[in-house]
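Notes from hallway chat w/ T.B., transcribed later so I don't forget. T.B. wanted the structure written out for a chain they're using in a teaching module, and asked if we could keep both sequence and structure tokens in one place. Agreed to drop them here.
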Amino acid sequence: MKIGDKMKVLLHSDKLELIEKSGVGRAIKHQMRALELNNIPYTLDPNDDYDIIHINTIFPESYLMGKKVKKMGKKVIYHAHSTEEDFRNSFILSNQVAPLFKNWLKKCYSSADLVITPTPYAKRLLDNYDLGKEIVAISNGIDLEFFKRDEELGKKFRKEFGFSENDKIVMAVGLFIERKGIIDFVELAKRHPEYNFIWFGYTNLNTVPHKVREAVETKLDNLYFPGYVPSDILKGAYSGANLFIFPTFEETEGIVLLEALAMKIPVLVRDIPIYEGWLEDGVNLYKAKDLEEFDKKISDILEGRLPSLVEEGYIVAKERDIKNIGKQLKQVYERVLNNSEINIK
């Protein structure tokens, strides 16, 4: 069967109210946009008619839905947004239950006809899970039409958040979890009272360890936690801030990182294996191995001692344009429906 009027994809997710503010929630919206841009028919209604289900969540209902669909003779794709590795150092008891979580992931992912994951790094991790299924790396992508630098929005952001045009602002985006590097972020704010540090995102503090709650509740004149904000406000922050830092210790990709690169804001990330092969220190962004290096490079970037790499970073985002991601998804759908070879371009 070829992609066409007679083919429809069910983009399936459970408990959207729990995940809509997470990276998975963002990824689902990206999939919808990618399919629309490539004229691939899709539905969000499980009662609708469809030929293939593309599952994004790992709740028991999601797994059972996949099993049910398979019995109906339809094809099942699982999108592996999660690994045991990025589950660790997140919520209370996450490290203790991580091995059980890994077993559940294996059960979910191995029930599919094919598995998609965002990066070659995540694919390498999953290859070691012995799923017995083909695993394909496809970026979550970035909507370059929306995430365009907007100087007016940047000025509006500064005004609404009480920053002057001369203030130097370091921003980050993510859940309030240890894995995201939030404790280091707060420490950097303590070390640099001359800069403003603002972290967008939210997690119920009752679900995270005490040291994370303590970090978020730190009172500093230059530290701000405005919580989760809509995309247009975030776009203003990307346009109005001076530096985006991503101190995360583990990711399957990092959609907010792609957003920052697309918005042409200077970027500083933690030097971790996921970026090998596509992000290079001093070429398209800057990397820091530890807190001391973050400390130094923040000052070097903000004081102009390191050259701007925003145009080089934009090239990375451009390669992951959401329209191209839709083309890659189309190839996967054709592969699964026709049981043919896959060649992602």
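Follow-up for T.B.: The first strand starts at residue 9 and ends at 12. Might be a good example for the class.
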